Amino acid sequence: MRTSEKPAGRGPVNAERQTSATTLSGPASRKLPVPPRERKPALAALAVLLILGGALATTLLVLRSGDRVSAIAVSQQIGAGQRFTEAMLREVQIADTGIDYVAWADRAKVAENFARVTLIPGTLLTREMVVSSSRELGPGKAQVGLALKPGQSPGTLERGDRVQVIYVPSKGGSANEEGRVLAQSALVHQVGTSGRGGASGLVTVIVDSSVSPTIVAYASSGEIALAELPGAR
């Protein structure tokens, strides 16, 4: 008895495989071409330069901040137009970051000059603060020493302050001249030790030479008082 083999029919499995193969090989299975990314070498180079420049600046700042130099600072108040002395100056160490300063080695030269503006203690001295001549101590000016009693001057007076020099007549003096201002903006050149009252003592002021004889005459009889002008420094 002869048995004949029949070719395998298309079963469900073979049909599914064929359908899958047809689907994968179709146009839908193909990927669309992706355009190449546009490169910007100029921007990339600029970014690298900026990063390197920032790192270099930071490194330089750190290195420079470690370099200390000796500079001059003011140790006491100095009025505009007053001559410097070495006692008014002190040495400070600062970072050499390019700031304008006067080297400590030049303190003797500074002592030959004058202050352009009023300087308070702790101020770092710069060359713009120093002038070679002074209108306050030049021709036409006079230094007048005053021996003041308690109540005749403020207790806060310092070298470099500005004051009014006022005539205060005694009981027998003329009432018409009471409170007359003899010098509108005199420079306090020196303040001596205070008396027992705390606010009095020796004060040297710089005034116009034209009024200095009058001030001296009134001061000898105790008829002079000083009023501080804080806003005139």
TrEMBL record:
Residues 1-36 are annotated as: Disordered. Residues 16-26 have a biased composition (Polar residues). The chain crosses the membrane at residues 42-63. It comes from the Bacteria. Keywords: Membrane, Transmembrane, Transmembrane helix. This is SAF domain-containing protein. It comes from Streptosporangium becharense.
